[in-house]
Amino acid sequence: MIGTVRATGALPSRVGTRAVNWSTAVVALAVALALPAFLSGFQLSQAGSAVYLALAVLSMNLLTGLNGQLSLGHAAFVGIGAYAVAILVTDHGWSYPMAFVAGAACAAVAGVVVALPALRLRGLYVALTTFGIGLVFPSLVQRFSSWTGGTGGKSVTAVYLPPPGLGLDPGQWAYVLSVLILFVCLVLVHRVKHSRAGRLMQAIRDNDIVAEGFGVVVPRVKVATFALSAALAGLAGGLFTLQHRFVSPGDFSLNTSIQLFVGMAIGGSVSIGGAVIGGIFLQYVPELTDRIGVPPIYTPVIYGAILALVVIFASDGAVGVWHRGVARLRRPKSFAVSNEKGST
Amino acid sequence: MTLLIQRLLDGLSGGAVYAALALAIVLVFRSTGTLNLAQGEMAMFTCFLAWKLSTGLGWPVVPAIVVAMAAGFAGGALIERVVVRPVEDRPDHLPIIIVTLGLMLAINALAGGLFTVDIVRLPDVFPAGALQLGGVHLAYSTIGLLAVLLVVSALIWALFQRTRIGLHMRASVDSPESARLVGIRRSHMLMLGWGIAGALGALAAVLVAPQTFVHTGMLQGVLLYAFAAATLGGFTSVLGAVVGGLIVGVLQSLAVGYIDFIGNDLSLLVALAIIIAVLMVKPNGLFGRADSSRL
Question: Which of A43, A104, A182, A313 has its CA 20 to 30 A from that of B191?
Answer without folding.
Answer: A313
